[in-house]
Design goal:
The structure is a homotetramer of 498-residue chains.
Chain A lengths: L2 E3 L19 E2 L1 E7 L4 H11 L7 E7 L4 E7 L2 H5 L2 H5 L5 E7 L14 E5 L2 E11 L2 H10 L10 H10 L5 H10 L3 E9 L2 E6 L8 E5 L2 E5 L2 H7 L2 E5 L5 E5 L4 E4 L12 H6 L5 E2 L2 E2 H15 L6 E4 L5 H11 L7 E3 L17 H4 L2 E3 L1 H4 L3 E6 L6 H12 L4 E6 L12 E2 L7 H4 L2 H8 L3 E4 L2 H7 L15 H4 L7 H7 L13
Parallel strand pairs in A: 18-21, 21-22, 22-24
Antiparallel strand pairs in A: 2-23, 3-6, 3-12, 4-5, 4-6, 7-8, 8-9, 9-10, 10-14, 11-12, 11-13, 14-15, 16-17, 19-20
Helix pairs in contact in A: 1-7, 4-5, 5-6, 9-10, 9-16
Organism (chains A, B, C, D): Novosphingobium hassiacum
Pathway (chains A, B, C, D): Purine metabolism; IMP biosynthesis via de novo pathway; N(1)-(5-phospho-D-ribosyl)glycinamide from 5-phospho-alpha-D-ribose 1-diphosphate: step 1/2
EC number (chains A, B, C, D): 2.4.2.14
C-alpha cells in the first residue's frame, strides 16, 4: 500500500471534549439536506450536532445544479466549517456531510468522506455510517477487473460497484451494488438528480428524516434536526431507500423486501446524544430507566449516588430516584480536555485522569458512594476513578454499570479494542471488581437493558436488537473476518492492501 | 499606539468549552512551582486545571539556575504545552505561568504573561491576576522619565517601578513598587534567587499555597493543587508577601500591615471550579447552599428543576433538594462549543444557542419548570433559553438566579460589559422577567448570598467581601477611571497610549 | 467536475526565480533512479536540477522492495524535499519524481505526479512529461466502462488503460495502453519489478539515460546527471522503451517499430538549461550559434549588445562575438523575483518589470544598443523592457530575437497562451516593432535556426524537428482538439468533465 | 538572557537566491518614504530592491498621521509584503522598512526592525544599517538606571538614550544620543512630526536621498530609487542629519561638524547591486575596472575568461575586455538555490556546490581558463569550483580575485567569520593557491582597488575609504571588543546579557 503523505495542517484537532481512550467510539455521523439556500451552512450545523459520533475529520460536499464542490478537514466541524470562506466554497441547495472517528486506512484527507467520483452518469457523492464486512473480498475482485481505488475506505467499494454495474439507471445500479454488500450501512448519496438515503436491511446504524419547510433533511440522530430547526418526520426503515429529486419529491423503495430490524442497542447506552429520540424513545429516559433497573437489580447501601461524568449522569439520576439515595456531583469534569500532557516526573499520580476528572473532595470525604458509569471497556479508567474517590476520602465505593459486560468486538462501524483487551472478555465480574478495586461491582442484566428500551425481555430466538458486543451473536456474515481466519479457503490470494 | 501585527498562528483557539458571550469572565489564572524536576510540565498541568479562568492565551517562564526561558501561545494550555518539545524548551526546577482571558491591549503575544525583563539585578518574571486601577496614571509618569513599555498590559507598570526604584535589594524595590499601586493583584514573580507570591492588601483575587514533597506550589485555586498532586497548605493572606529561595526556604512578609480582607464574592458564584476550596469553604457546597436559599426565598410551583448547564448545576441541585422538586437535565450541553457558525439563511432560529444548549424535548414537554442559572449579565442568552424551553413544550418557565442582580462593572480583573449593557442596570426585576419572557423571575438576596458563604448577613458598614458588581461599593480608589471622567483635573495631559 | 479544496499550505511557493508571465513554459521535468542507497535523496537533487522545467509542484515516489511511498508538495523541490524528514518518508533504492509547471486541472495535490495506483499486479507509479492529445476521447470511453478517475491529469488515462488491458504481463499491458495513446510523452514508471522509461514514437519530449556506478538514472536533461554525479550514457530513442529490473538488468524494446524523430526544437531555444546536451549538442553552443546567425542575418549599427537576462545571454554573446560589438550587462536581473507586489498608486511606472529587471543606467545612457531575447510571446514584457532602456537614456534600441516568430500554440506539453494572445499571430514584424517601440526588430529565420542546430536547412517535406509553434505543422493527430472544434462528429456526447 | 520562543511561522524563508555560505554578508538595507499615498507599498518595493542586503527578516512601520502600524516577518520581502492584506495593515503616507541578514541576538521577531517605542514625545521608530561598537557598554549603564530592553539588538540602545535624554526637543535628544554612540550607522527614524535620516560621521554605511514628485525617499542604494520610480538627488553626507516634516520640508544638520569620510570600500566590491551608483560612480563600471586592473597586474595565458556567477561577472567582463581573452559562461548558476539538500550517500561528490553552480562541460573541456571571483573568504567554495572546472576537463585554471586578501573581521555591520576562519589570515597567496588547487592565483592590489574607484592610490596617512577588512585599520574605537579582551579594565561588571 502506498503511504500518502498529504500535507495537511496538523491543527490542534483534538482540543476540546471527548477523546476518551477507555470508551467505545461510534465511527461516524452523517447529515444531508436538500432544498435550502445555503445547504452547506445547514450541513455544518447539523454535523456539529453530531460531533460526538466522530471527532477526527469532517467533510461536506455540495451541489449547485451544475457542479459538485467538496471540502474536507482534519478535526472538528467548528475548526473547519465555521468561517464564511469555507461555506462560500460550497455553493448550492443540496449538501451532505460526514464526521468520522476512525483513522482506519491511515491518516490523510483521501479517506475523509463524503467520497466523490465522476461516473458516466455524472457526479456521485457518498457518506457512510457503518462498516461493510465483506469489503476486502469485493475489493480484490474489483481490482482484478481494472478498478483503481483512491482510498482505503470500505465505502469506496460501493462506488466501484455502482460504476461497473451494467444496469441502465443509477438507482438500479445502486441497488445492484448494495445487493453484493454485507454488513451495516446508513448512507446518504448525492447525484445530479437529487439525494438518496438508505439503511441496511437490519437497520443496524440509525438514520432519520426531517422536514424544514419544503426542505428534506437526513441525519444520524434527531438532535441534528433540533439544532438546524427541522421537524422530525420518521426514521428511515431498515432496508428502505428514500430518493428525493431536486424538486423535493420523495419516493420510498424496499429493494430487499421486508426484514426484521436489529438496530444497535449500544446507541441507547452510550453513542447517541441524550436529547435524541431513537426507535421512538427518548435516549435520556432510556438511560434513566437503565439506572432504575440497576437500582432494582443491584442495590447498594450508600450515602451518595455519583455519576462518572458526563455519560453516566442520566443513569445515575435514574439510580438515585429509584433508590432514594441523593444524587451529587462527586466528580467534576473539566471542559478543557485536549491532548495528553507530558507527565511530570515528580508528583501527580494519575495526572492524566485528574486533568479530566477531579474528585469533589469536600463532598465525598467519609462517604459511602455508588459510582455509575455507562460501560467498562478496558477497565483502566474505572480503576483510576475508584482510586481517585478513595484518595478523596470515600469510605466505600460501589461501582454500577449501565450496560452488560462488553465481551465482544463490533464489526459494524464501532471502534472496539481487540477482544483480548476487553476486561469482560478476560475475567468474571468478581475479578473485575478486584481489578478496579471496588467494594462491589454490578452490571445491568441483558434483560434489564431490554426492559429499559421497552421490551419485556430479550427474545433469544430472534433478538430485537443487535447486541453482539454483549452476546457475541452477530446478525450478518463476516466474510472478511472469516477470510483472515481461514486464508486457505480464499478464492483469491490475500493482497497486501487488505 | 502601535499596532503590532505579530505573525502568530490564528489556530482554532476557541475550540472547546466556554466562550460564552453572556457571562462575566475571570481574566486570569496563575500558577508557580519551585523544587520539582520538570517545573514547566507541572506548571502546564496546573494551568490546565485553571483554564476556566482564561482561555485566550497562555505563557510559562522557567528558570534553570542560569537562564530564564519563556514560551507563550494563543489559545488553550493543551494546544500550546502538551507536546514534549514545548516542555523541553523550558528547563529548570522553577516555573510560573499564566492563563489569560482578556484581549485588552490588542492581540499579540507581547501582552501574554508572564512578562519578563532583564533588570540590573538579573531576570525578573511576573504573572498577575487582577487589575491595577491607577496603571495609566503611573505609566504616564514612567514614560516621562524615559521608560519604554513593551506591552499595553497594566502589569508592566510594576516591572518599571521595580526597575527604577532606588532601594538596594530586589525585595525592597518590589515593595516600593507595590506601595504605588492601587487595585487588585495576586502575583507570582521569579528572580534568579527564587519565587515571590503576594496578594493585594484586600485580597480581592485568590491565591493559595500547596506543598508537593519539598516543592512549593502557588495557584489561583486549590483545584490546580489537586491536579498536580500537591497538598493544600493555606491561602496567601491579604497583603501578605511570601518569598521562597531556591532551596525552598519560605519567609512571610506583611509590608502593608494587617488589613481587613475583601475577597471577591463572585468567585463563589461562578468563577471558581466547584471542586475548589475558597476561603475555607467548598465552592460546590456554597453553590448548593445558594440554591437552597433561593428555594426558601423564591419558591415555585413546578414539576422539574432544570439547570442551565454547566454553571447552574450545583445551585439547581441545592434548589431541588431544598424544594423537593425533582432535578432533571432538561437542557443538554454540547461538548463541542467552538466558534460561532455561519447562520443558515433558512430555518434554524437561534441556531447559535442551540448548538451549545439543546432542549431535552421529551422531558420538558408539558411540564412546569424551574430554570436555575448562576447570573444574568446582558440577558440575551437567558431570553433564548427560556424560548427554547417554551418551544420544547414547557407549560411554565420560572427563572431563578443564584446571585443578586449584576448592576455594576468590575475594575478588579473581571471582564464586564459596560454598565449600560448590564440588564440589571437597565431595568427592575419585573421588567427583566418580561424581557426574558419568564413566568416568574427571582434573584437570591444579597443577604441570602452572604448566608450561603457562612455569614449571618452582609455587614453594610464593613462588608466582608468585595461585592461591588452587586452593590456598587468599590473597596479601593479608581484613579484611572476618575481621570477619564474628569480629564481637566489630570496632573499630566492624557496621552494617546492611555 | 468536483472542486477539491485540499487543505495544503499556501506556502510562498513562487518565491525564487522564474515565474515570468511572458514566456512559454515547459510543463514538466522527470527523473528516476534505481540502485542507490537513498534513491529519494538522489531524486530530489536531480529534480532540483530540473526545476526550470516546472516550478509549481513536485512529487517523489519510492519503493523499498515491499511498499511504495509517496510525498507531494506545492512549490519548489528545495521547499519540499530538502529536510531530512521528507527524505526519511521515502525509503528504498528506487525512486522517481516529477516537477510540474501547469495547474491544469485545478489546484490540489491530486494532480501532482508521480501518479500511483494499486493494480492487480501490484503498485504502479508514473511520471509524465508531455501531453496526450486524445486523452479526453479515451477518458470518456473508460468512464463509460466504470473507471473512476482520481485526477484531471491526462496521464491518469494511461494508468486506467494499463489496469483494464487484458494482456497477461504488465509490459504487454503497458504497450497495449500506449498504442491507444497519441501525442507527446516521455515516461518513467515504477512497478514492484523495476523501472520502465520510454519516449513517444516521435521523441517529442527529451529523455536521457545515465549511469552512476551500477545505478541507472533517467532524466529529462543531462544537467540532472551532472548534478547527481552520474555519467551520461545516451538518449532514450524515439519510440524506445527501456526496462530495468531490480538487479539493474536493462532491456530495450521498440514496440512501435522504427520511426522518424521529431524532437521539440524549442528545447534548444529556451526550455533546456544551457549546460545540458540535447540531441548530441551543447545547448549553450547552439544558442550562441543562433546569436551568430542573427548577427549575420540582421546586423545592427550599435554600441553595445545587451541580453535580456538570463535567457538571452548565450545568444547575446554569440551576436557580440560575431558582430564585434561589445557585450555588456545593460539590464540587471534581481535574484529575488517572488510574487507580484501591490503596485503603489503613486510613482513607479512598470514597477513589476523593474523589480525583476532594472536598467544599468550609467552604462546605457546615450548608447545605441542591440537587445537580445530568446523569443517574443505576448510582447508585453518586451515593450516594457524597450521602454526601460529608453528611460535609461539609450539613444537607439534594436531588438533581435533568437527564434522565429511564435505563431502557433503547442499541444505537446508546453504552456502556450491561446493563439489570439500570441503577438506574432496578430501582426507582422513591422507592426511588432512598432508595438514594442523598437527602432528595429528582427527574428532569426527558420533556416537560420535549423543551421544553428547543425542542419543545412529545414527539410520542409519531412522536418527534422517539431517546430509547430513556428510553422503550425503538428506531427500527430490532435483528436481532442478536433472533437472540441467539431462536437457533432463525436462518437460519445461531450461530458462536462472534459 | 531569556530565550523567547515566539511562535512565528518557520516558512521556507531561505528559498531563493543568495544564501551563500562562503561570502561576506551585508547585514541590512533600509528604506523610507514620506509623502505618497500608499507609503507601505512603496517601501515594500524599495526593500525588495534591497533584498540582497539582507534576506532573513523584514519589517515595515507606517504612520497615518495618528498612529504607527508595524508588521514584521521572517524571510523575504516578497513572502511577507506582496499580498494586499499585508499592505492594508500599514496605512499612511509615511513608512520606513528594513531588511536584515543577521540572526545576532537569537531568532524571533523582536529583533526585526524597525524597532518602535512609545516615548513621552510620541511614537518613535528606527531602522538601522551598521553596527554600534560600544553598544554593550552603553546598555549596561542604561539597565543600571532602570531601562528595560525588549530586544538584544544594538539599535535599541539608541532608543533608550533618546528616551532618557534631558534635552527638550526630540531632535536635541536624538543628537544627544548619537554623541554617545560609536561605530557605523545609517539610520531612518520616524516620529509623529516626520522622518529623520542620518549617517555616522565617517559615513561608513551608505544612504541616499531621492525624490518622487513631492515625496522624499531615503534608501541604502540608488537601485531602490530606480525600482520605485524615484529620481536620485544626492547621498546623505557623512555626519549629516536630514529632517523632513510631514509637509515635506527638509532641513539639513551637521551636529558633529565636518568630518573626513571613510565609506566602506567593500560596497563597491560585492555588497551593492551593480546597477547602483555609490559615491558618484557606477558600481558596475568600478567592478569592470577592478577586472581591468587585475588583467594588467596579473595577466594569464588562457583561452577563456569565466566568471563565478553572478558576483564575478562584471570583473570578468573587465578582465576579458582588457586582456582580449573571450568572456564565456563556463559555469551555469541555478536560479533555484534554496536550502541545502540531504547529500545522497552514493554518488554526487560536492552535490551541494553543483546544485548552485554547474560546469558548462562542452565549453571548458580542454581549455585553459581564467576564473574570476569577487573575493575569497574561507576558500572552501573556491576550492570546489576549481575542482568542478578540472572535472569538466579544463586543462589549466588560473584564479583571479577582484579584491585584496580579506584578512580581518568587520565590526561595522558586516557578517564576517571569526578571523581564524579567513583563508587570507591563515596563509599567504602561494599557500592559498595550493589550498584551492589553482594553477595560479592573484588578488587585485589595494592600490589597484583604489584606482578602480577613481583614486590615484590609497592615502595611507588618511585612507579615503574604510578598508579594515583588508588593512586591519579600523577608523573608530571598538569599545566592546576592548572590554571583552580586557575584562578587568571594565568600569562595570560584565553582566551575562553581554
Amino acid at each position: 500500500m502506498i503511504s500518502q503523505n498529504e500535507d495537511f495542517d496538523h491543527a490542534p484537532w483534538d482540543v476540546g471534549g471527548g477523546s476518551d481512550d477507555d470508551k467505545l467510539h461510534e465511527e461516524c455521523g452523517i447529515f444531508g439536506v436538500l432544498g435550502v439556500r445555503d445547504a452547506a451552512a445547514t450541513a455544518a450545523l447539523g454535523l456539529h450536532a453530531l460531533q460526538h459520533r466522530g471527532q477526527e475529520a469532517v467533510g461536506i460536499t455540495s451541489f449547485d445544479g451544475q457542479e459538485f464542490y467538496s471540502r474536507k478537514g482534519i478535526g472538528h466541524v467548528a475548526a473547519n466549517f465555521s468561517n464564511i470562506s469555507a461555506i462560500a466554497e460550497l455553493p448550492g441547495t443540496m449538501a451532505a456531510g460526514h464526521v468520522r472517528y476512525s483513522t482506519t486506512g491511515g491518516a490523510g484527507l483521501r479517506n475523509v468522506q463524503p467520497l466523490f467520483a465522476d461516473l458516466a452518469s455524472g457526479g456521485f457523492a457518498i457518506a457512510h455510517n457503518g462498516n461493510i464486512s465483506n469489503a476486502m473480498f469485493l475489493k480484490r475482485d474489483l481490482v482484478r477487473k481494472g478498478a483503481i481505488f483512491q482510498s482505503t475506505s470500505d465505502t469506496e467499494v460501493i462506488i466501484h460497484l455502482v460504476a461497473t454495474s451494467r444496469y441502465p439507471t443509477l438507482l438500479d445500479r445502486f441497488v445492484d451494488a448494495l445487493r453484493l454488500v454485507e454488513g451495516a450501512y446508513s448512507l446518504i448519496c448525492m447525484t445530479p438528480l437529487g439525494m438518496i438515503a438508505c439503511r441496511d436491511p437490519l437497520g443496524i446504524r440509525p438514520l432519520v428524516m426531517g422536514k424544514m419547510g419544503d426542505a428534506i433533511v437526513f441525519a444520524s440522530e434527531t438532535v441534528a434536526l433540533d439544532v438546524v430547526g427541522a421537524d422530525f418526520v420518521r426514521e428511515i426503515e431498515p432496508g428502505e431507500l428514500v430518493q428525493v429529486d431536486l424538486d423535493g419529491n420523495l419516493s420510498s423503495h424496499h429493494p430487499f423486501g421486508k426484514t426484521d430490524a436489529r438496530p444497535c442497542i449500544f446507541e441507547h447506552v452510550y453513542f447517541s446524544r441524550p436529547d435524541s429520540l431513537m426507535g421512538g424513545r427518548s435516549v435520556y429516559q432510556v438511560r434513566k430507566e437503565i439506572g432504575a433497573q440497576l437500582a432494582i437489580e443491584s442495590p447498594a447501601d450508600a450515602d451518595l449516588v455519583i455519576p462518572v461524568p458526563d455519560s453516566g449522569v442520566p443513569a445515575a439520576l435514574g439510580y438515585a430516584q429509584a433508590s432514594g439515595i441523593p444524587f451529587e456531583l462527586g466528580i467534576i469534569r473539566s471542559h478543557y480536555v485536549g491532548r495528553t500532557f507530558i507527565q511530570p516526573s515528580d508528583g501527580a499520580r494519575n495526572a492524566d485522569v485528574k486533568r479530566k476528572h477531579n474528585a469533589n473532595r469536600a463532598l465525598v470525604a467519609g462517604k459511602r458512594i455508588v459510582l455509575i458509569d455507562d460501560s467498562i471497556v478496558r477497565g483502566t479508567t474505572s480503576m483510576k476513578i475508584v482510586q481517585m474517590m478513595r484518595d478523596a476520602g470515600a469510605s466505600e465505593v460501589h461501582f454500577r454499570v449501565a450496560s452488560p459486560p462488553t465481551e465482544h468486538s463490533c464489526f459494524y462501524g464501532v471502534d472496539t479494542p481487540e477482544r483480548s483487551k476487553l476486561l469482560a472478555a478476560r475475567m468474571d465480574v468478581k475479578a473485575m471488581a478486584e481489578f478496579i478495586h471496588a467494594d462491589s461491582l454490578a452490571f445491568v442484566s441483558i434483560d434489564g437493558l431490554y426492559r429499559a428500551v421497552g421490551e419485556a425481555q430479550r427474545n433469544s430466538a430472534r433478538p430485537q436488537y443487535c447486541d453482539a458486543c454483549f452476546s457475541g451473536e452477530y446478525p450478518t456474515r463476516l466474510t472478511d473476518l472469516a477470510d483472515r481466519e481461514n486464508p486457505d479457503q480464499l478464492s483469491f490470494p490475500v493482497d497486501k492492501v487488505a
